[in-house]
Amino acid sequence: MSTTTARPSDMLPGLGRKIGSLRQERRWALVTAYVSLVIAAVVMLAPPVYMLLTSLKTSAEVADLAGNPWMVHHPTLENYWAIIGNPMFRGFFYNSIIVTVAVVAVTMVISVLAAFALARMKFFGSQVLATGVFLTYLVPDTLLFIPLYQIVGGLGLLNSIWGLVLVYPTLTVPFCTWIMIGYFASIPKELDEAALIDGANWMQMLTKIFIPVALPGIIAATIFAFTVSWAAFVYPTAFITQPDSMPLTIGVVSQLIRGDTFAWGQLMAGALIAALPPVVVYAFLMDYYIAGLTAGATKG
Amino acid sequence: MASDSNAAVLAARPVGAPAPGSAMKRFARRRSTIAFLMTLPLIAVIAGLVAWPAGYAIYLATLNRRMTAFIGLENFDILLDNETFRAVIWQSCFFAITAVLLKALIGFWLAHMLHHIPAKGQRKWRGMLLVPWVIPPALSTLGWWWMFEPSYSSINFLINAIGFPSIPWLGEPWWARVSVIIVNVWYGAPFFMIMYLAALKSVPDQLYEAAAIDGATGWQGLRHITLPMMRNIISITVLFSLIVTFANYDIVRVLTNGGPRDLTHVFASYAFQVGVLSGNIPRGAAVSLFMFPLLAFIAYFVLKGVNQRNKEMA
Questions:
Q1: Which residues fall within 8 angstroms of residue A167, CB to CB, at 6 or more apart?
Q2: Which residues in chain B have their CB less than 8 angstroms from residue A37's CB?
Q3: Are B240 and B299 in contact (CB under 8 A)?
Q4: Phi then psi for B73, rounded to 5 degrees?
């Protein structure tokens, strides 16, 4: 076969050379790609790695200016034991868990119900409301925290984790509703018609069809609500000043940094433990995480 | 009441005539009632926790410090006369624009590089490069703070190792500004990378093949295929990130807390300082309201971009 088929380079002089250069160009592109990615990965991972290294050092080793700070000579877990043994830190963790679980539950109920209504039941003002959801998503928390400070204070919920449960939905509900509208809208209409013919009511349609079919979207939205409430910083910084009610983010940043000599090892150990839950969720559910991240712009 | 109006409707219809679509109508009415009830919690969140506070902020900003008297726009006036606040405006804009441009460029570059390598390796790299986005920024900034710490700076150690003098990262205003931008870019670039990677994957390969047959170079492919196909997603992410970066608080609070000499304050951190820490709530509200016109302006274009994209995808 190969003898009878004329190769393109035989017919067009010069094309062979072009193909050769193209191959070389591709190889160079690949080398550039890997070099860029390695550099980027080193830069992106350096801070967490350095936090980990510091957390494994004794205070004496952290304070030693002579050595290479990027090396650990006598790795120890004593910082981790110390921070886990600290009742204040455990309190932060506990507060974070309560607030996050409550906010995720509230958010998912509100946004799944609303998204179902907005995606399937056209009603007076539904279009305006959908746009309103998107616009509220664009309102940053730093614009709202001062009036909310007054409002939460008026309700007597300053220094209470329930004040946080009240205001965190402003961070989570708009985006979760927005991506759930996208997921629900992509479910074929034939499915709800079939359900209606079988005599299902709206609630059954939602729980028996929409939620199971849009489960990937629900997982993505749940992950989003979880990471956002876990990482929230502006509201707790503004509303919580007593260590008993602080969640992890502000607790680690404000309470573990006290006095002139920072216990850097413990501080880094605390920050890493605090960052662990979202990282674990990400490690196991990366695809859902990324789907949620990109859904806002590609699905909505 | 409801039964009265039902009776009226029934009475209005000629007796004995069939009720065309009345069951349907009732069904529709029921449906919209259910829909309204289902969206009620959402409406409560939007109205009670976003719209009302936003309006309340405007009212607050017109009060005096003790919140006893209406003083009109005086808070805004005082702020604009204040040198520190003018520096805040400048720093916020400088910070947001520089950081977003860098994030977009680095994100685009990385997405492109990631798109070029064989598909089976992409997942691993993507997983590694997205790590900064996953860690709560307040906590990762703590790590950066420690890396910038003057006497133990591990970054300066590396800089010294290649023969350059130490950099006063957080001590000198310009370097402090650079530090804040570095941390923000580190945190945000992976987000751009993921968005652009998703967009790159949606560009059909045939376009590049056709262009290659026509003898287009890689650069021409980028310029005339990739960029036009991604124009919409690029503008949405840039505008969205501009809002988020402009309103950023975590990084400045943890890294510099506004210092040195209040020169790295952005709107959010300055509003916090004035409103919550110094207890001048009305003036703090006025500071954060300065963000509003710009955010509204950007939001308008984001919405336009998203609607346009929906039309294209439909």
A1: A148, A152, A235, A239, B49
A2: 110, 113-114, 117, 125, 129
A3: no
A4: -95, 15
Q: What is the mean pLDDT of residues A16-26?
A: 65
CATH 1.10.3720.10 fits A80-298, yes or no: yes
Q: What is the Cα–Cα distance from A53 to B61, expressed in whole angstroms? A: 47
Which residue in B has a C-alpha nearest to residue A125's C-alpha? B36
- Say yes or no: B31 contacts chain A, CB-CB below 8 A: yes
The ipTM (two decimal places) reads 0.85
Put simply, the answer to whether B142 touches A234 (Cβ < 8 Å) is no
Choose among A114, A147, A294: nearest Cβ to B41. A114
pLDDT in tens, A159-177: 999 999 999 999 999 989 9
pLDDT in tens, A249-279: 998 888 877 655 668 888 899 999 999 999 9
Is the model more confident about B155 or about B185? B185
Would you say domain B82-313 falls under CATH 3.40.50.970? no
- Span between the terminal Cα atoms of chain B, in Å: 44
Q: Which of B57, B136, B194 is facing A293, going by the closest CB pair?
A: B194
Residue contact B60–A150, C-beta within 8 A: yes
Q: Mind listing the pLDDT tens digit for each residue in B202-252?
A: 888 888 888 888 888 878 888 888 888 888 888 888 888 888 898 899 999
Instruction: List alpha helices for chain A, DSSP H.
Output: 8-11, 15-55, 59-63, 78-84, 87-120, 126-137, 141-154, 161-167, 169-185, 189-197, 202-205, 211-213, 215-231, 234-239, 248-255, 264-284, 286-298
Q: What sections of chain B are H helices per DSSP? A: 2-12, 22-44, 52-60, 74-81, 83-116, 119-129, 131-134, 137-148, 154-161, 173-201, 205-213, 218-221, 227-246, 250-255, 267-272, 281-289, 291-313
Res. B13 pLDDT band, cuts 50 70 90:
very low
Whether B303 has its CB under 8 Å from any CB of chain A: the answer is: yes
Question: Nearest residue on chain B to A277, judged by CA atoms?
Answer: B135
Give A18's pLDDT tier (boundaries 50, 70, 90).
Answer: low
